[in-house]
Amino acid sequence: MNAFSHTGNAPTNATQAKDRLYTQLSGSLSRMARAIAHTADLCEQMETDLHAMRTFAGLDAAKFMTVATNLHPEDDEVSDEESRT
């Protein structure tokens, strides 16, 4: 007679525990895969936003320089005259 209490193909406590742990692992891996996909989407959006910010900063700087030049055109003329002497 067998010293173990299981008979035939009935799952043991160890088998049930293993199956439960594999199910938990599967759920954790699924959640992690979704989180990684979400992170990738956020990174792509951030890349788009950074590009837009670079474009905006470049245009804003160009506008600022244009306005500054138009506000003080005599400063450029004075510096040109000083450099000739």
From TrEMBL:
Q: Which domain of life is it from?
A: Eukaryota
Protein name per Swiss-Prot or TrEMBL: Uncharacterized protein
